[in-house]
Recover the amino acids of this structure.
């Protein structure tokens, strides 16, 4: 089968365009890092693949377009000025009422200045998700005195390798564009771009003995591609059609261009040696190492980077990537992620060869590697030029007694957070740990801290955590934890409100004050757990007990219900209210289940039936309240997946890809033996009613029957139950329904009150 055509609407030879530039400009470019987006740490902007040098101007039109999307009613009151004289990553905000001027060093920095103005002057919030811009006055307030801010660190990185899978593998360009606008507004300058990453593999490997069809069978469905890129699995959820591969590559290229237009760096996947089965047999001189098992999946083979074939394949990969995505100055790779086998490979030499291949294609490019478990190892670090490396520390807020300079030999790193795993809908983060560590770590005499890394496994679930973590890079501080949350409460719904302040103080003291030592995320819900009387969590690797006093969320719900009715119209208020009601119900599941267990063990049938009926009522209410917010709908997730299929069979295949990630995750051996089932659990309307509630109902029916018959309960094949759900094609609402305030009030009425100041 002939290889797929490159997307017709994308330029396929960016280097040719560069060659056409005048000799003078070429000389300037050649003196800089590889053409692409922002050179790491410089804050300069890039357009059409050319890195702008300090003192050069840039086009403010992309930032203006983003501003008009973010603030459609007020964008005309802002003047955005490219400021060549500004320092790197610097903005200045000034102006009179209705005439605000923002000067900045890049398009993204201009938007960060707008974000600063909204937060500190206008008192409004554009969060992720939810905003209060509807409360802005018709004429924006004046800036009392000009304010200049510069980033404290050159690297402000965003997006985990898993974000595309857990946040939405079938999202539209407009959804990715919104994400970029929000990241720029909050000061991020480096963004991982995964969409379409399969395309360079598919193209390049056809030169190394594989047919297009073989490669389609090897490449997973979009929902599972994150873990293929991490060399954890292959094939599952696919195959992806060549048409969809081309469309995803085009989408990824548009995302990269969107970032470049704002002077942000598109961080692209680099090549470190993942190959299909049988590569060595098809390519003379190649040496591969079987990578063994990852959670029950056979990992793809690893091509020894020191073998001569590696350099050729890496060059082919980067050439195909460049043709569609353009160049960048930063590439993301984590060899031997979460295990893998080194065999006889010299890890230091392999790392050096990986970096050499990267620099052959992109001279001077930065290699971003995830700091996770034991990675990066001393052996890997010894083999590379660490001045061209950035470690994205995924454990900065999780464990204690961390010394990153000693651990990584002084290699530059970004302080990161992974407060969300699998896309769980659970509030909270170790926010006080961020404030306790960022300043002192940066101020150390031998500090190698060079950035922040926003790395939740899924984004768009926790607006307070997103706001505070990104503020670290721009606020000279120290940031006062209580004062920051008070300010957040004052702007979140458009103006100060005593009840909103009290609600967020409860949330601050509870789920947003969890400590380091073992966890960086809060506990998930027992409603979403596989049924068992002894269930302590839904995901195998999540906390098994409450990490904060449950009463804090319960009291926050009461306060939010009393917020001034004039402030209840914003999407920020509606999301926070629904999410807090959802969390209060989820926390109550940990009170109810032990009571149900006690009734069953006491063989008290009447009480067992009363309590299980209460449980099932709570799950019905949970489905209803989450159904009132657009961010908590299963229907949207499924509709996006089906929209990518050209016919019914392809639509069904992509829907299974999307459903399976939320439930079984993989085949039986991985779901059960690898404990992956429910890893991506989340309390979404439709998912609660069609899977979780049915699952618990079947379990309680089996226990009820056992009590009546005075026998052991019948066993249920839960994987078969969940796999049947994953194979369904039932439709669910794509728009919210019901009154969020009425439904949240119903949740409060169904729950016992929490005494003030008590758990």
């Amino acid at each position: 089968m002939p290889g797929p055509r490159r997307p017709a609407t994308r330029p396929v030879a960016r280097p040719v365009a560069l060659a056409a530039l005048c000799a003078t400009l070429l000389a300037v470019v050649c003196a800089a890092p590889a053409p692409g987006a922002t050179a790491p740490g410089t804050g300069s902007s890039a357009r059409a693949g050319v890195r702008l040098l300090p003192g050069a101007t840039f086009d403010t039109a992309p930032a203006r377009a983003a501003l008009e999307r973010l603030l459609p009613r007020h964008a005309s009151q802002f003047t955005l000025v490219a400021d060549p004289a500004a320092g790197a990553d610097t903005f200045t905000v000034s102006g009179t009422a209705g005439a605000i001027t923002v000067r900045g060093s890049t398009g993204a920095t201009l938007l960060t200045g707008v974000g600063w103005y909204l937060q500190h002057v206008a008192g409004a919030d554009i969060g992720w998700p939810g905003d209060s811009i509807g409360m802005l006055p018709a004429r924006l307030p004046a800036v009392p005195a000009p304010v200049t801010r510069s980033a404290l660190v050159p690297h402000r990185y965003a997006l985990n390798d898993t974000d595309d899978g857990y946040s939405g593998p079938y999202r539209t360009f407009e959804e990715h564009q919104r994400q970029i606008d929000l990241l720029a507004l909050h000061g991020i300058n480096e963004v991982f771009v995964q969409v379409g990453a399969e395309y360079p593999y598919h193209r390049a490997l056809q030169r190394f003995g594989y047919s297009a069809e073989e490669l389609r069978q090897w490449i997973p469905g979009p929902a599972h591609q994150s873990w293929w890129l991490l060399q954890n699995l292959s094939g599952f959820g696919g195959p992806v059609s060549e048409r969809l591969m081309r469309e995803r590559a085009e989408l990824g290229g548009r995302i990269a261009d969107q970032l470049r237009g704002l002077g942000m760096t598109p961080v692209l996947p680099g090549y470190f040696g993942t190959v299909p089965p049988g590569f060595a047999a098809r390519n003379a001189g190649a040496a591969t190492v079987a990578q063994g098992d990852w959670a029950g999946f056979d990992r793809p083979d690893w091509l020894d980077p020191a073998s001569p074939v590696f350099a050729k394949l890496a060059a082919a990969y980067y050439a195909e990537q460049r043709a569609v995505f353009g160049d960048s100055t930063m590439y993301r790779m984590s060899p031997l992620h979460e295990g893998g086998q080194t065999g006889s490979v010299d890890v230091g030499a392999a790392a050096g060869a990986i970096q050499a291949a990267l620099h052959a294609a992109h001279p001077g490019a930065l290699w971003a590697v995830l700091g996770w478990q034991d990675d990066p190892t001393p052996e890997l670090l010894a083999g590379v030029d660490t001045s061209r490396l950035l470690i994205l520390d995924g454990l900065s807020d999780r464990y204690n007694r961390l010394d990153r300079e000693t651990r990584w030999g002084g290699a530059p790193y970004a302080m990161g957070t992974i407060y969300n795993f699998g896309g769980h809908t659970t509030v909270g983060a170790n926010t006080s740990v961020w404030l306790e560590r960022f300043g002192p770590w940066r101020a150390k005499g031998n500090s190698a801290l060079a950035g922040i890394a926003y790395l939740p496994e899924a984004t768009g679930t926790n607006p307070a955590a997103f706001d505070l973590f990104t503020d670290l890079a721009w606020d000279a501080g120290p940031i006062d934890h209580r004062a920051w949350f008070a300010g957040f409460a004052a702007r979140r719904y458009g103006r100060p409100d005593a009840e909103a302040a009290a609600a967020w103080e409860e949330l601050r003291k509870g789920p947003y004050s969890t400590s380091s030592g073992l966890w960086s995320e809060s506990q998930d819900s027992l409603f979403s757990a596989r049924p068992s009387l002894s269930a302590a969590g839904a995901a195998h690797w999540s906390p098994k007990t409450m990490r904060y006093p449950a009463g804090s969320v319960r009291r926050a719900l009461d306060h939010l219900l009393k917020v001034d009715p004039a402030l209840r119209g914003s999407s920020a208020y509606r999301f926070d209210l629904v999410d807090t009601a959802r969390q209060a119900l989820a926390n109550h599941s940990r009170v109810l289940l032990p009571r149900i267990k006690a009734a069953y063990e006491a063989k008290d049938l009447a009480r067992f039936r009363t309590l299980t009926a209460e449980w099932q009522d709570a799950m019905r209410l949970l489905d209803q309240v989450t159904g009132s917010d657009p961010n908590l709908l299963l229907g949207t997730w499924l509709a996006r997946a089906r929209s990518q299929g050209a016919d019914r069979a392809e639509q069904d295949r992509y829907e299974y890809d999307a459903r399976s990630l939320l439930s079984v995750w993989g085949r039986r051996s991985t779901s059960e033996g690898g404990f992956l089932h429910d890893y991506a659990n989340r309390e979404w309307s439709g998912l609660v009613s069609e899977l979780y509630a049915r699952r618990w109902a079947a379990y309680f029916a089996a226990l009820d029957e056992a009590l009546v018959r005075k026998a052991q309960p019948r066993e249920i094949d839960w994987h078969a139950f969940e796999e049947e759900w994953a194979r369904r094609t039932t439709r669910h609402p794509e728009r919210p329904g019901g009154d969020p305030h009425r439904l949240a009030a119903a949740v409060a009425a169904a729950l016992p009150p929490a005494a003030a100041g008590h758990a």
In short: The chain has a mean pLDDT of 92. Residues 22 and 367 are 30 Å apart (CA to CA). Residues 497-513+548-630+737-759 form one domain. The longest strand covers residues 90-96.
